[in-house]
Amino acid sequence: MCQLVLKDNYGRPLVELRVSVTQMCNYSCIFCHREGISGNHVEISLDKWEKIFKAAKNLGIRKMKITGGEPLLYHQIVEFVRTAKKYFDEVSLTTNGYLLEEFSQKLKSAGIDRINVSLHSLDRKTYKKITGVDGLKKVLRGIKAARDLGIKVKVNVLVLRGINDREVERFIEFARVNMIDLQFIEYEPLLGLSSEYHISLDFIDRILEKRAIVIKIKRRHYKRSYLIPPWIDVLHTWHSRETCMGCTRLRITPDGKAYPCIFRGNETVDLLPDPVNGIIKANNLRRPFWR
C-alpha cells in the first residue's frame, strides 16, 4: 500500500513539521527572527501535542524538527521527544547548545535522531557579540558530549558580513578535525531585520569546490553539499526560488497553530479543534513566497 503524501497546490510534498515548543530563550542573538512567530504564545499540554502528532502521522508526515526559542528550556522536552518518536520516523532538534551537555544522555535515551547546533563563531569574543552570552566553551562541550554518545550532530553557521565571515576556513578545519557535519547558512533579513549582515556565500562554494571529493545538490532546499569529509552544506536562502520550491514543511507555534510560510506570518491555522483538517487546510495555504 502506498503511503499517503500530502502535496500543496504547487506540487510540493509535506513531509515535516517544524515545531516551536517554546518562545523562551537564554540568548539574545543579533539576527533572531523568532521563527517568524510574533506575539506571545501559551505552551499547550503534551496530550494536545500528541493529538497533532497522530494526525500528522495519519497524513503521511514522517519527520519532526523541534525548535524554540531554545527547546532545551521547555519543561517537558525529554518527554516531548519520547512521545514524538512514537509517531515520526525521524525526530531532530535544533539548539544553541548551551544546555546540551546536561541533556545529551536524556535526549539519546528518549530517541532523538539528530541535533543541529547553532555555532556562529569559534572566537569567544565574537561568539558573545553575536549571542549576548559568553557560552562558547560550554557549547563546545555539549557538541562533544552528544557526538560521543553517537548522536548525529550538525553544526549550523549563519554567515554574517563583517562579523564571522572571516572564520570560514577555521570552521572547515573544525569540522574536519572533529568529523562533524557542517552547514553554512546565508543570512536573510526576514521580517524587517537589517540587511547589513548579508553576504553572498558564493565565496564559500568556491573554497569547497577545490577541496571536495564529492559534490552534490540536495533537492530539499536545493543546497550544495561537499564531501571533504565530513559533509559540508552551503544553504543559499536569499529569496531563492529553488530553495522555496524544495520546502516540505509546516511551522507550528507553541500554542498549536500552523504557519504555512515564514514569509507570511499573518496566515495561520489553529490545529487544536481538528488536527487532521487543520493540517490539510494549512497545507493548502502553502505557496511559494513570490505568489
Q: What Rg, in angstroms, do the CA atoms define?
A: 18 Å
Counted up, domains total: 1
**How do the strands line up in the largest sheet?**
9-10-11-8-7-6-5-4-3-12-13-14
Tell the overall outline.
globular
What is the average of the pLDDT values?
92
What is the H-and-E element order? EEEHEHEHEHHEHEHEEEHEEEH
What is the count of helical runs?
Answer: 9
Structural class designation: alpha/beta
Biggest pleated-sheet summary: 12 strands, mixed
Polypeptide structure, described:
- The protein is α/β, with parallel strands linked by helices.
- The chain has a single domain (13-285), classed as TIM Barrel (Alpha-Beta Barrel).
- The protein has nine helices and 14 strands.
- The strands form two sheets. It has a twelve-stranded mixed sheet with strand order 9-10-11-8-7-6-5-4-3-12-13-14. A two-stranded antiparallel sheet has the order 1-2.
- The two termini are 35 Å apart.
Short description:
By secondary structure, this protein is an alpha/beta fold. Helices cover 30% and strands 22% of the residues. It has 9 helices and 14 strands.
